[in-house]
Fold each of these.
Amino acid sequence: MLFPMKYVIDHYNITAKTLRFYEEQGILPNISRDKKGNRVYSEPQLDWISFIRCLKETGMPISKIKEYKEAYEAGNSTYLERETMLKQHKLDLQKKIEESLKHMEEINYKLAMYELQKDEVRKNPNHNFKCHGLEVQATGQAIQAE
């Protein structure tokens, strides 16, 4: 079964421009056309589009995706190379996730500081708001926190 570009756009959260770009870059090859000349995609191509998106949205550059695709097309002789590429990508992604979680913790801490001081700031316009290692006077001037 073949699927029109509109189906791919609607079901894979991808733009026509991106699909054409992937085709131009050689990471989405052999796209067929229907009788009207419109691009149509096979089920294996839809699986590949999904995987391209997975890799791209998790930070793999197009050049690496292309390298992976070329290794895949070379056959089983590149099995270990491809596995290594995916393992490294997974490690890189895990590191980014851990960094993002640390950033989330810091943001949550700052939001808790806002919550703790919310009533005091409302009651007392002269309250020195404490957050970010600075105190902010009611005038908006930052002063060094002790």
Amino acid sequence: MIVNALLYYLIAINAVTFLVYGIDKVKAKQGSWRISEATLLILAIIGGSIGALLGMKVWHHKTMHKKFKYGLPLILLAQTALIYIICNETYYGGSADLPVREWLKGKLFSAQKD
């Protein structure tokens, strides 16, 4: 159930993010008000990173800005890892000893042991 809700959310937020990048590009060409870079990045952070990356490619928008060029792929990587963990917990109930989970446990709990 949570995986289905997550999937619908990701489809919606990525569609919105893609459209917002397109709107910002049109506004840039017209010289009118712009959508702030913070808003564009927040949309990516809350799940719209694929839409943001596609918007950059399709609209040729923000392609030279380092925080978008390098930041968006890093956001997508972090989101992919998080989704993997959520889906793994949902389907396996946390009982599978997968390398990622064991690595995370070691990293998260080793600091607490000291």
Amino acid sequence: MSILHLGQFDIAPIKVIFTIFVLFAWSRAFIKFRYKSMNAKEITFWTILWTSITLAIYIPGKTTLLANLLGMDRGFDAMVLIGMITLFYAVYRLYTKANENEQVITELVRQIALANTLKKKSRKKR
């Protein structure tokens, strides 16, 4: 494996690539927060998430502690399991939100159609 030697630190290239990605992703979240497209709770969530993942990449031994708490042997297995559970939950939330939005749109279309029908009927009576 190729290692970058930066002073006292030896860093694998994948860690550098991941760090650049994290900084890019977090900067997008911060820009949305700055332009009021994201609230403080959301930016806090993304900051904690990206910081935690970055720490897990740079200090992988600490993930073993988490794995042991979950009854697993390897930290990587725990991180994959947590990631999968989080993704399944995110998909579930998106699915339910999409259904809610579909119901709201359907109701709005019905109301608009009814209002247009009533307007046409009232014009014909004149």
